[in-house]
Structures are given as structure tokens and as C-alpha cells.
Write a structure and sequence with these properties.
- The structure is a single chain.
- By secondary structure, the chain is an alpha/beta fold.
- It is about 45% helix and about 15% strand.
- It folds into two domains: about 210 residues, Spore Coat Polysaccharide Biosynthesis Protein SpsA, Chain A; about 90 residues, no CATH class.
- It has twelve helices and nine strands.
- The termini are far apart.
């Protein structure tokens, strides 16, 4: 079996990293090289890494963004397989072994399944967002492939939060696009397909996403992703012509435009949260769907 290097990009991840490192210690796949790419943290992240994982290679450097941090970590890796793992992910014990066993039998790049854990939080604002995202993830996973298989450009799901990329493919594609601060994994997956590289999804390689924010902060992240996607299309204008997934979400009928115009308002988000105990979850989460889509896609200026 080929050597595996796990690269974890992090920025001010002192509180999150120990969970990811502990999960790696429980992996059934042993003899794994761990590289933490500290992207200019100011909270003592590197010291925490040395405390919890003295065997790990800890790269420190200027803030490059996640793409740059991943690329910098990959340069230090000795493995023929590069596994990228975000600092707020907690892979199941068999996650890495499942990905590696697939890579031993198939040529391509491989992404696992990330799930929001069904746990309760002490902070009610973060708990409300966690519950919504858990429901959203459950709905989204219901339309994803149930079995291992190759993806195409229209159903592409490739997340650098948990993925395996053979080193030779990573170098062939030039790593992640450092001009992007988000959506760099979507770009990598599309560039892989364009280069004739298979992209595989393995739903049995599960990692839990311990990322808990408020609903308002979640909306701001969606706006950041939207802006990153716009930047991606500036860099790769042919994506708009070649892939129907781009450029269609802004075309609204007059009725839908009116609906978003009236409901996409931060104070409505606050009202739903305030009265959440009186609104059934199935209804509440669909309301969040509409308001968050409206604020992130069509009226982001209202979040200022």
C-alpha cells in the first residue's frame, strides 16, 4: 500500500484541531503522515499542534488562504496519496482506509461524505443553525449516490474538506487555485474532469463536520461562497458556456423575484429564530431555505 500523507490547513484553529488530530489517531489505517499547514495563525495554533500531535509536521507561514495552505502542506508531504482534511472535520475510524482502498483499485480522485452531527449545543443560536444544516444535509444526501461511483460535471460533488488525491494527479493539475478563497475544490474537480481524470464519490468514507455558527453567520458564508464562485467564473469563463450548473440561479420569474424581494430580510430571520419553538421544524427549515437563498443570491447588500 502506498504511503499516505494527511494535510490539514488551518487558520486560528487552536480549538478545532485537537478533535481532528484525535480522530486521526483512531484511524484503522496506520502509519499515516500528518501535516498541519498553519496559515498565519495568531492564536497559538502551532503550539497546540505540538502539544497534541508532536509527531506531526507543522508548517507555519503567511496567510495564503485555504488553497494556498493546502498547496504549501502538500509540498512537505512524502506520501504518494494526499488526503486533505479540514480542521473541523472528524473522520470515522475507517474513513481513510476506505478512500485508500478505492484509490488502490481505481484511477482518479476521491471525495468522501461530510455530515453535520446530530448533537445538541449549549448556545441556542448555534444550535438552531446546526439543526437547520443537519436537516439540509439530510435532504441533500438523499439525492446523492448511495454507492461508490464516478461523477460528471453536472452532478459533481468534490469537497477538499475530506478527499484523496494521488500526488501525480495533484501535481499534474497544479494543485488548488490560490487566487480563490472559496470554491477552489469545485474548480479542482472540474479541472480534473476536463483533464480526463475520474472523480469518484465514496459515501462510506464519512467525516463529521463540527462547524457550528449562527444563522446570520451562515448567511454571510453563503455570500462569501457566492462571491468566490463569481471570481471562479472570471478566472474560468468557459465554465459558464460548458456547464449548465453556472449562470442559471439568477434567472427569476417576476413572481419568484417578488417573493424573494419580500422575504429576504435579516429581521425575518431573527423573527423565525425568536419564535422557533412555535414553528414546526419542517416549516421553519423551508422558510430558512427561501430567506437564505434570497439574501445570499439576490439581495446580499441587505446583510450589511
Amino acid at each position: 500500500m502506498k504511503r499516505v500523507s494527511v494535510v490539514i490547513p488551518t487558520y486560528n484553529g487552536k480549538e478545532k484541531l485537537p478533535g481532528a488530530l484525535a480522530a486521526l489517531e483512531k484511524q484503522t489505517l496506520r502509519d499515516v503522515e500528518i501535516i498541519v499547514s498553519d496559515d498565519g495563525s495568531t492564536d497559538g495554533t502551532s503550539d497546540r499542534v505540538r502539544m497534541h500531535a508532536p509527531h506531526a509536521i507543522c508548517r507555519t507561514g503567511p496567510n495564503l488562504g485555504r488553497a494556498g495552505a493546502r498547496n504549501a502542506g502538500a509540498k512537505l508531504a512524502s506520501g504518494e496519496y494526499l488526503v486533505f482534511l479540514d480542521d473541523d472535520m472528524r473522520p470515522e475510524p475507517d474513513c481513510l482506509q476506505t478512500l485508500v482502498e478505492r484509490a488502490e483499485k481505481h484511477e482518479g480522485i476521491f471525495t468522501g461524505a461530510q455530515w453535520i452531527p446530530n448533537i445538541s449545543l449549549d448556545d441556542p443560536e448555534r444550535e438552531e443553525c446546526r439543526a437547520y444544516r443537519y436537516d439540509l444535509e439530510r435532504r441533500w444526501q438523499s439525492v446523492m449516490p448511495r454507492e461508490f461511483g464516478a461523477l460528471n460535471a453536472e452532478n459533481l460533488f468534490f469537497t477538499a474538506a475530506i478527499c484523496l488525491i494521488p500526488r501525480n494527479v495533484f501535481e499534474k493539475l497544479g494543485g488548488f487555485e490560490e487566487r480563490l478563497r472559496d470554491a477552489e475544490d469545485l474548480d479542482f474537480g472540474l479541472r480534473a474532469l476536463e483533464a480526463g481524470v475520474n472523480v469518484f464519490y465514496e459515501p462510506k468514507a464519512v467525516a463529521w463536520h463540527h462547524d457550528f455558527v449562527s444563522i446570520r453567520r451562515y448567511v454571510l458564508r453563503q455570500i462569501e461562497y457566492r462571491n468566490a464562485t463569481a471570481k471562479l467564473l472570471e478566472l474560468r469563463p468557459h465554465y459558464v458556456q460548458n456547464y449548465t450548473r453556472f449562470g442559471t440561479d439568477v434567472k427569476l420569474s417576476p413572481l419568484k423575484h417578488a417573493m424573494y424581494f419580500f422575504v429576504a430580510r435579516p429581521y425575518i430571520l431573527d423573527a423565525i429564530y425568536r419564535w422557533r419553538k412555535g414553528i414546526p421544524g419542517a416549516i421553519r427549515y423551508r422558510l430558512y431555505d427561501r430567506i437564505i437563498a434570497g439574501l445570499s443570491l439576490y439581495f446580499p447588500e441587505r446583510m450589511n
